[in-house]
Write a structure and sequence with these properties.
This protein is of the alpha/beta class. It contains 11 helices and 11 strands.
């Protein structure tokens, strides 16, 4: 049997007319209260608000947006949703947006080729957002890919500096320097590096800083060992490094690769840190539970997400463009690092 629109079994959202009837006022008065106008007497406003609560009425945000020109919605274009850093950043973005009274519309970007980015931006524009946060890091993103955002408030997170838009990022250079210097200060002659993917800005910055730190200390720069952020690639790199008895210190560009490398080293009879010290990057929640607990670089993803939302809202509400910013890192020292074997104190 077909259900009629006026059938009481068919739920519908309460309307402004329903609220007016419940409160005993005109629909125009309800509209004024819903839009925060101060020309309604306090006793009448209280009566209307009470009626809204009883009926579960919510003002039509789309209609208010047409009047104000604001949708109270931020768009997010993000690649690599499965990565630890991006998920932590997205969590911080969502929390800060909610705190500031904005909702989010997320568009995952499975490919960051130009057509993919353009399509993602077009979808967000159709959904009426006030501004866009672009969370990408791969090299395929160029200034031409961001041409569509002209006139739209935009902040770019961790996507290099080849664009003219306000941006915020982790200080990758500082983090890699801290990791490398820690191992040198323990007495290791040099540090080997398992880098991230070739198309990653973050991996580029960490590898460049590792090499620059070694040169600044007058140390040999070993060949880079390629990786792809995965535990499997770290394991393959660890097997390669374990075969070289001169290797005593390894800096992996993320914690997952460090985990894989430590497993390969142990399997080859190279104890961590008795034979080889290992440092990671990220400080994942489980890093302290690795065996041994992992020395790593802590990235403040929460600060990045919070700052990105603040920068975007500054553009939307105050037309103010914040200069590019960097969020610092911190070295977290645990049991995976020690002096090299020849200099370790007797146990």
């Amino acid at each position: 049997m077909e259900e009629r629109a006026d059938d009481p079994r068919v739920w519908r959202a309460p309307s402004i007319i329903d609220v007016a009837r419940e409160a005993g006022v005109s629909a125009q008065t309800v509209s004024r209260v819903a839009n925060g106008m101060d020309i309604v007497r306090p006793t009448t406003r209280d009566k209307v608000l009470a009626a809204m609560d009883r009926l579960g009425y919510r003002p039509n945000s789309a209609a208010r947006a047409l009047k104000s020109g604001r949708f109270r919605t931020l768009g997010v274009i993000m690649s690599g949703l499965s990565s630890y850093g991006n998920m932590r950043t997205l969590e911080a973005i969502a929390n800060e947006a909610a705190k500031e009274g904005y909702s989010l519309t997320l568009t995952p970007l499975w490919t960051i080729a130009k057509a993919g980015f353009s399509g993602a931006f077009a979808r967000l524009a159709d959904q009426a957002v006030d501004g866009v946060l672009v969370v990408l890091e791969a090299h395929e993103l160029h200034e031409s890919d961001l041409e569509r955002v002209a006139g739209m408030p935009t902040v770019v997170v961790t996507a290099g500096d080849s664009h003219p838009y306000p941006s915020i990022d982790i200080d990758q250079t500082q983090g890699a320097r801290l990791a490398t210097e820690h191992l040198l200060e323990l007495g290791h002659d040099t540090v080997w590096h398992i880098r991230g993917p070739e198309d990653s800005y973050s991996a580029d910055d960490r590898a460049a800083s590792w090499a620059a730190t070694l040169r600044a200390h007058g140390r040999e720069v070993p060949p880079v060992i390629p990786g792809d952020w995965s535990t499997a690639s770290g394991y393959a790199a660890g097997r390669q490094l374990a075969a070289d008895p001169t290797v005593t210190a390894v800096f992996a560009a993320n914690d997952e690769m460090a985990l894989g490398a430590m497993r390969a080293l142990r399997e080859a009879g190279r104890g961590v840190p008795e034979s080889v010290s290992v440092v990671g990057f990220d400080n994942m929640g489980m890093a302290a539970d690795f065996q041994p607990p992992l020395t790593t670089v802590h990235q403040f993803f929460d600060r990045v997400g919070t700052a990105a939302v603040g920068m975007l809202i500054d553009q939307i509400e105050h037309r103010r463009r914040t200069p590019p910013g960097l969020v610092g890192t911190a070295l977290v020292t645990r049991a995976s690092t020690a002096p090299p074997p020849a200099t370790q104190p007797p146990r």
